[in-house]
Amino acid sequence: MQSRGKARFRGSEAANGLAMISPTALYATLLLAAPLVTIFLYSFWTDGYLTIVHEFTLQNYIDVWSNEAFRAVMLRSLGVSLAVTAVTVLTAFPVAYFVSFHVHPSKKSLWLFLITIPFWTSYLIRVFLWKVILGYNGVVNSGLMGLGITDEPVTFILYNVNSVIITLAHAYAPFAILPIFVALEKIDRSFLEAGRDLGESPFMTFIRVTLPLAMPGVISSVLIVFIPTIGDYVTPLLVGGPEGRMVANLIELSYKKLDNYPMGSAIAISAMGIVVAVSLLFLFLNRRYLKGGK
After folding, report:
1. Is residue 37 located within the same domain as residue 126?
2. Rounded Cα–Cα distance for residues 6 and 278 (Å)
3. 199/209 Cα distance (integer angstroms)
4. Which residue has the higher pLDDT, 85 or 258?
5. Same domain membership, residue 253 and residue 141
């Protein structure tokens, strides 16, 4: 009876599906889960001289959260990521809304094609371009002085948090536009017509109908932008300067220059914990918003 059940399972659709995904699952486990488990274990070990002492300790996490410099970098990374997310999503929504509701269907593909143009160049090249644009003698300062707005180049747009926010917001704009556009495209236009027929103004129709129905796309954009930007390494390194360094730069410092793998691992796990907590908060607020809208 048992052997007959095993034979039936082997020939079932579920068994064929498992056989198809098993190589991918194994590959993902080796490349993703194994490194994460290793970092997690390292965070509870003790750093020795040019070696790692395999003794369980919580001191690494205590040092991370008790050290004022570490906390400052963590809070800066969180603040920068939230600012980038807000700027990117708030600027992406009007673009996605315009393409979805005001562009002729035959031309939407062209607009989406134009939106993806930044992907044609390397991310590193785009960061260097912003470094040139925001530089002391860059396009922005030359334009401001040419228009007579300032007498000398402004310095608050490069090698600080502001330059990091500007560069990251531009880099992740397409990632924010596309999910919102997809959500807007799925909205049944008859719902909007019904709202107008019931006497709602265009603004209230947008607030009560369009925005709640597009909220899954908005939350997707928020998470797509927030999660990678909090751990971005290249942009703070190239355009952030000392004032714009973020948690990824701190992790690199612990690993490579201080040779303190347990401390670097504890910082990385702490940053991942912040990402998970804030992401769950976004999802919870979205659920409350949708329930309130009903």
Report:
1. no
2. 44
3. 13
4. 85
5. yes
**Tokens representing 108?**
């939407």
- Dist. CA 183–CA 217, nearest whole Å: 5
Mark whether 155 and 264 lie in a shared domain: yes
Task: Judge whether 63 and 207 are in contact, CB under 8 Å.
Answer: no
pLDDT digits (tens, 9 = 90+) for 269-293: 999 999 999 989 888 877 776 666 5
Same-domain pairing of 3 and 100? no
Give the count of domains, the chain: 2
Residue environment code for 242-281, b if the CB has 16+ CB neighbours within 10 A, otherwise e = eebbbbbbbbebbbeeeebbbbbbbbbbbbbebbeebeee
For residue 22, give its domain range.
Answer: 1-42
DSSP run (H or E) holding 234: helix 234-235
85 is written with which tokens? 């997310």
Q: What CATH number corresponds to the domain at position 270?
A: 1.10.3720.10
Burial class (CB in 10 A: 0-12, 13-18, 19+), 118: middle
d(CA 208, CA 184): 14
**Type of residue found at 83:** A
Global pTM value: 0.85
Share of the chain above pLDDT 90, in %: 46
Whats the size of the chain, residue-wise? 294
Residue 51 lies in a domain: no
Question: Residue 289's Cα: distance from chain center in Å?
Answer: 22
Whether residue 48 is contained in a domain is answered as no
Structure-block tokens of residue 277: 């907590």
Cα gap 229→218, rounded to integer Å? 17
Pairing of strands 46-48, 51-53: antiparallel
Q: Looking at 28-37, 50-59, 99-108, 251-260, which range is the least confident one?
A: 28-37
- The residue whose two tokens read 């098993």 is 22
